[in-house]
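**Reference record**
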Amino acid sequence: QVQLVESGGGSVQPGESLALSCVVSGSVASVNSMAWYRQAPGKQRELVASIPPRGGRAQYAGFAKGRFSISRDNDRNAVFLQMDSLKPEDTAVYYCHANLGAIQGTGVIWDDYWGLGTQVTVSS
C-alpha cells in the first residue's frame, strides 16, 4: 500500500522558518511530479509548489515565490519544502502530493496520492 507521510509542521512566530518533508512508502515503480498544497480554514486547497521528476524547473504560487523552496530526493522518493519568512497568512494544513506508478500484481497503476497533512501555524 502506497503512503505519503509528511513531517516537519509546527508553530512558529512570523519571520521564522520551517522545513517540511514527505516520504513515499510502499510498492512504487516510479514517481512523476511531486508537490505541496495547503488548505487554510474555510478556504479551498491551493497549490504551493510543484517539482518535476528529473530536471525542469519547479513552479511556485505567487505567495511562495522568494520565500519557499521545493526540492526532492528521487533515491528516497521524498519531497521537501523549505519555508522562510513565514507570515500569519501561511497558517494552514500542508499536504504532500505525488503522481506515481504503484506496483499492483504484475502491473503498474498510475494515480495521484495525498498525504494526511501537517499543520503549520504562524502566530505571534
